[in-house]
Design a protein that fits this description.
403 residues, single chain, 35 strands, ten-stranded parallel beta sheet, mainly beta, 1 helix, 2 domains
Length: 403
């Protein structure tokens, strides 16, 4: 790893590398504690009726106040969504479990309503587990304003794990110390259609077809009926027996009009291909969807990102990063001191400039700014900064208190 480690709360490169590996294997580093996250909506008492309302029919918990001292913790919200309406906010969601399919039509497990500038928010989300299960789940796990998202486990996603919207124009948002585990969209390993196979409803197959005038590529189709079924359509769409779907996954993709600066650091990401998802795109997007944005420069450093395709994977176009478009507003983002592996691209640029330095493969092989697998003309050679001071020596595990 080139250069020192700015801001890392451990002490050496070896400590950080060990921490990032442990983040994916040691349950004490991140996620909720199932032994204590046991409160159930509709069974246990609302902790503060002046701040929250519970709706057992819609399966929602709604924050109805502006209280940055309120802490919501130790709840199992499997099958529920936590909603923060336009301009409302609370202080913290901690040690909670979220999950389940999208049968209730949730936009996100934690969802902030309103426009990006006034979107509902949770200032800190920490030590939570988000598990989408083995089926299609909400469009994102976390989609709200926040300042800190740390020490969470996010797994089995079929779309976007986190869509940050910022906190305010002067507050840096940190996404740090999280485990982004494997994506899953369907409940079975997918194979090509077989006319002799007896299928069950919602069983998935993989077929190569064209969509919307594009070139043919693999997509998933879900069985609409049970038994021996006819062939799926030759192009994207549906027929009596099959309906094509296009689940895709991004680890972090900023909202269309993100507010304030953002930093992604010390995360472990395993966004690899497999037989239960398809259409995988990027581990981390630094820029919002739109170029009409209030975003500042982004920092993406000391993450461990693995986007290699598993054996039997459905997609070979998953990149570690996707960098800004030509119309980027603000100072160019910086990608540095990350450990990366991919079968496709380290970074795919839309044409905007970005700084690149100190990034290596897992075996410490340097990835220079002009590497052939950094596409686009925007990469600028960059020397990482010196390490900052004033951080505790407790490592990734110590970013938030244990649960």
């Amino acid at each position: 790893m080139v250069g020192a480690l700015p801001g890392y709360p451990g002490s050496t490169v070896a400590d950080l590398k060990t921490d990032l590996i442990a983040l994916a294997t040691d349950a004490t580093y991140a996620g909720a504690n199932a032994a204590t996250a046991t409160l159930i909506p509709g069974v246990d008492t609302n902790p503060d009726a002046g701040v929250l309302t519970f709706d057992g029919g819609a399966k929602t918990v709604t924050a109805t106040a502006t209280d940055d001292t309120f802490v919501f913790e130790n709840w199992d919200l499997t099958g529920w969504s936590f909603i923060v309406p336009d301009a409302n906010y609370i202080g913290k969601i901690r040690n909670c479990i979220f999950g389940g399919d999208n049968s209730n039509g949730f936009t996100a497990y934690i969802n902030g309503g309103g426009t990006q500038e006034s979107k509902g928010g949770v200032k800190t989300i920490e030590r939570c587990t988000f598990d989408g299960g083995g089926t299609l789940n909400p469009a994102s796990f976390i989609h709200c304003r926040f300042a800190w998202v740390q020490n969470n486990v996010l797994k089995n996603c079929s779309d976007d794990y986190i869509k940050p919207s910022g906190w305010d124009a002067s507050t840096t948002c940190y996404i740090q110390g999280n485990l982004f585990d494997q994506p899953v969209a369907v409940g079975n390993d997918t194979l090509a259609y077989n006319g002799a196979t007896s299928y069950s409803v919602d069983e998935a197959i993989i077929e190569t077809v064209a969509k919307g005038g594009g070139s043919a590529k693999p997509y998933l189709a879900l069985a609409l009926n049970a038994g021996i079924l006819g062939a799926p359509p030759a192009t994207w769409g549906s027929n009596t027996d099959w309906n094509f779907i296009d689940p895709h996954v991004d680890g972090i993709q900023a909202d269309g009009k993100y507010i304030g600066p953002i930093t992604y650091r010390w995360n472990s990401m395993l966004i690899t291909g497999g037989k239960r998802n398809i259409g995988l795109t990027s581990g981390m997007w630094p820029q919002p969807h739109s170029t009409t944005t209030l975003a500042y420069a982004n920092l993406l450093y000391e993450n461990r990102i693995d986007t290699r395709v598993d054996v039997g994977g459905n997609n070979s176009f998953t990149r570690c990063f996707a960098s800004p478009p030509a119309g980027w507003i603000g100072t160019k983002p910086k990608f540095y001191n990350n450990w990366l592996e991919t079968d496709y691209k380290w970074n795919v640029s839309g044409g905007g400039a970005f700084d690149w330095g100190g990034n290596t493969q897992f075996d410490e092989t340097a990835i220079p700014y002009n590497d052939a697998d950094i596409s686009g003309a925007g990469a600028v050679d960059y020397t990482p900064p010196a390490r900052e001071t004033g951080y505790p020596g407790t490592g990734i595990k110590g970013l938030s208190p244990a649960v």
